[in-house]
Amino acid sequence: MKIKGTLLLLALVIIFLCSHAQEQDLKLLKVRMNALERKVSIQDSLYRKLLHNDLPNSRNEVENNSYSGFVVSSIKGVILSIGGFVEADLIHDLNPLGDKSSFTTSSIIMNPDPGSQNVTNVSVRPSRISFRGSNTDDSFSALLEFDFEGSNGTTTPRLRHAYITYKNWGAGKYWSNFMDNNNNPDILDFEGPNATITIRQIQIRYSFMIGKNDKMAFSLEAPGAEITAPDAWSSKNVFPDLTASFEHQFWQGTSHLRVAALVHPVTYLNGSAAQKNVIGGAVNFTGSIQVTKLDNINVQATAGTGFGKYNNDLGGLGYDAFQRKSDTTKLSTANQLNLFAYYNHWWTPRLSSALGGGYVDLLDSKENTGPDAIQSTSYASTNLIFYPNNNFKIGIEVLYGKRKDADLKTKETFRFQFTFFAKL
Known about the structure:
single chain; 424 residues; Porin; 3-stranded mixed β-sheet; 14% helix
C-alpha cells in the first residue's frame, strides 16, 4: 500500500509539473503568436496594397511610418522595428536661395551678388532613420527618428521625433496637433509647399475616436513665440499653446477632411523689462480626397494671426509678432493667410506626377514691419516620378518660387531637382 501511495503521489507531482510547464509554454506561445500576428499584419497590409491598388507607397505613408521598415526584435511581447530611407538630390537653381537643399521661398535672395545665378548642389540631408517599439496590441509605442538636416547646411544628425503613446495619450516631440501630417502631396522637394503648416513640438496630447470614422485630439504644446523686436526685447516662455482638432474619414478611409484650431500666447519683455502678452490664434482646414483610384487631391486653407512659427515658409524668422509703429512699447501679431492645393495622378502603376502650388500672405505687413520684410511668397511645382519597385524611386521636379517684400520688390527663381530615393 505504501508503494501504491508513493506511486500515486509521484504521479500527481508529475501531472502538476507537466501542467505548470504546459501553462508556461502556452504563455510563451501566446506571446510568440501575437508577435507573429503583428508581423503578418504588416505584411498583409503591404500585400493588400500591392494586390488591390498596385501602387507604391505615397509620401504620406513614408512620412507617417505606415510601412515602418523591418522587425529586428520581438522579445517579451515588445516588437522593435527599424525604418527610414536614403535620399540623394541633385539640385540646380537659376537664382540663389539661402536654403540650398530645400525649396524655401522665403529664403530667395532679393539682391544677389553678380554671378551668383545658376548654382548646382547635391544633398543627402533628407535621409532619415527611425526606431519604433510597440507591444503586440499596439496600445503602447515609442518612436525615435533622426534625419541629417544639421544646422548651417551640415549633415549632422538632427532629432525629428521622440514620442511615446499609451492608449489615447501621447507625450514627447512630434508633429503639432495643429497640422495635418497626412496631407502631403507626392512631391520630391523635402521642404514641401510654402503654405503648409509644419512644425514638430514637445507636447502632451489626448486623442479619441468618435465612432468608426471621426477622431478628435487636444494638445498642450511647448510655449514660446518668434518675434521681431529691438535687441533689448525678448520672448518669454510662460503659457503653452493649446490646440484642438477634428478629423472625418470617408470612402473606406481613403479620404479625410480635418479642421484644427490654435491658441498661441505671445509673452514678451519689452525694453523696460515689463512683461506683456498678446494672443495669436488660427484655424486650419485641410483635406485629402481620393477622386479616383489613380487620382487624389490635397488642399489646405489657414487663416489667423500670430502663427508664423507654425508656417513652413516663415518658421524661424520672427513673424509671430512685430513691434508696433503706433505704440513702440508693445507688439502686434501679424495677420496671415495660407493656401495650397495639389493634384496627384498615377499614369501607370509605376509612374506618377503631382501638380500644384501654395501662397502665403502677411495681410498687414506694411503696418508692422520694415520695407525689407516679407509680404507674400508663392510656390509651385510639378514632377514625374518612376518607381522601379515599391521601395525605390527616381524623379525629376521643376519648382517655381516668388518672394514679395513690403516695399513691393519681388524676386523669382526656378529650381530643377533630380532625386534618387530608396526606402529601408
